[in-house]
Amino acid sequence: MQGTAALLGARTLMPNAALPTLMALTPPGINVEYALCDENISDLDWNMPCDLVVITGTTLHKKRIHELCDGFRNNGVKVALGGAYASINHDQCSHLADYHFIGEAEYTWPVFLQQWTKECAWPVYHQKTYVDLKDSPAPDWSLIDVNDYININVQTSRGCPKHCEFCDVIQYVGKKPRTKSAEQVMLEVRNAHALGARTVFFSDDNFYHVHQQSDCRDQPAQCPEKHTTDNHFVTTTTAESRKPFASLNMLRPHQILRPDKSFHPFPPLSHFDLIPRY
Ligand code: SF4
To answer: 135: CA distance to ligand 1 center in Å?
Structure first.
């Protein structure tokens, strides 16, 4: 993957939206300063002065999550651990961190920050129901350099009704698809454009069911043409989806997620002129 990123003049595929979403969830009046480390981009500074390290990752990152938790705690730094791996395997992770987040964090992170700043945080924050994505803010990308990434991700939904036996997504975010509103999606697309993103990746667990969401249709046209012409849109979806790539020709909010648009299989491939060098 890193070789492909280098071909495209980036350093990795896309940022993880979890920590920028937590940043955006900081309640008004809470005075915290964030520093963000993406180990795909830069080396970790184990000695960076901080009051708390927040770690997220998927099952794929299990080994590194354990290393990070043990390393920081051995350095005397408090650790908060959340994300898919820590949620699905919470019984095996209770010893890893000072603060353990189980499930999605849109509701628990603001509560934690309120309590942590008053030194009365709980050891475990367990979100037992799935959050309403209308309560999920646009990620705060202020600490990333967009040039490091091929894509900036926009998550329009969570959940997947499929039953792939190897999949941990459905254990973490459930089988019932939940969607953000078209206004939320357009805000995130505009944010990506304002950052200078070359490609927006719709990082849904499975994009196809979004076509069925009626509240994402019939929105008034609000997006100026200049906000759409330079971006490419990419996603992943299961193969039985009806006209699966129709939605990628997204020009206006009322066209988001509406089938029957023309088919744009690839962005221009001029970047691949670089390939012969390798
Ligand atoms: S289609 Fe993808 S997200 Fe859905 S269950 Fe299968 S692997 Fe998981």
So the answer is: 24
- Ligand 1 binding pocket mutation candidate from 171, 203, 206, 235 (most atoms within 8 A of CB): 206
Ligand 1 site: residues with CB under 6 angstroms?
A: 160, 162, 164, 167, 169-170, 205-206, 238
CATH architecture assigned to 150-277: 2-Layer Sandwich (3.30)
pTM: 0.82
| Å from CA of 74 to ligand 1 middle | 37
Domain ranges of the chain: 15-126, 150-277
**Ligand 1 atom 7 nearest Cα:** 167
**CATH architecture of the region 15-126:** 3-Layer(aba) Sandwich (3.40)
What is the per-residue DSSP string for the chain?
-HHHHHHTT-SBS---SHHHHHHHTPPTT---------TTTS---TT---SEEEEE--GGGHHHHHHHHHHHHHTT-EEEEESHHHHHTHHHHTTT-SEEEES--TTHHHHHHHHHTTT---SEEE--SPPPGGG-PPP--TTS-GGGBSEEEE--EE------TT-SHHHHH-SS-EE--HHHHHHHHHHHHHHT-SEEEE--SSGGGGGG-GGGSSPPP---GGGTTT-EEEE---TTSSSTTGGGS--SGGGTT-S-PPP------GGGGGGGG-
Question: Ligand 1, closest atom to CA 205?
Answer: 3
The rounded Å distance from CA 109 to ligand 1 centre is: 27
Q: 74-118: per-residue pLDDT in tens? A: 999 999 999 999 999 999 999 999 999 999 999 999 999 999 999
